[in-house]
Amino acid sequence: MAGILSQGLKAGGLATLLLIAFISLNLGVFNLLPFPALDGARMAFALFELVTRRKVSPAVETAIHALGFILLLALMLFVTWRDIMRLFG
After folding, report:
1. What is the pTM of this model?
2. What pLDDT is stored for residue 64 in this prediction?
3. Which helix (H) or strand (E) is 56 found in, with range?
């Protein structure tokens, strides 16, 4: 990521601005994925409640979001570990 940003800085101000906008857009789209612990999951719960006309139990929703958060942390640790192994291994 730092290498790409460095290349953007060397290419000029507009390229850097476009790169930052692209990263921001990607983060926004990723956040809208219907995965627990992301905003997209909250929208999925709201859609479920709208379609079924039943409220999801706050305890169930909390448990699902907690599990999703744990899975996202595990994925982050896995990717970080692989990056470290690629650099030093």
Report:
1. 0.73
2. 96
3. none
